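subagent[fold] <- orchestrator: predict structure for attached chain, return tokens only, no commentary.
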Amino acid sequence: MIEELTRYEALKLCEERAGSASQMARDLGVTQPRVWRWLNQSKQLPAEYVLRAEELYEVSRHCLRPDIYPMEVLPAHPRWYGVDMATGPDITVVSTVSRKRNGNRINALDTTAQRRTA
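subagent[fold] -> orchestrator:
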């Protein structure tokens, strides 16, 4: 099971993986006092540094800023769990469908259960 971190915990993990707040500042191209403010005042990483921090410290953008990068809940591919593709279980296919309602276009999730035939 994947453990979800709070924004602050994810930021602290970045600092830990950088080795120090000073090193994190150098890595992200900012001053050390700015990193101190993130850690002690705002308690979150500003949006413009999230993708770089994810790349450097391997901390998910979904944990660093879930307000900007929400976690998508989609069914996992059976191959990821070692399920035999030929005899695998029922699967759910999720796709985004555009529909018109009263002349306005809306997007909806279309969920269709399909049974795999061998």
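orchestrator: received. Logging for downstream: The chain has two domains: 7-64, 78-114. The chain has five helices and two strands.
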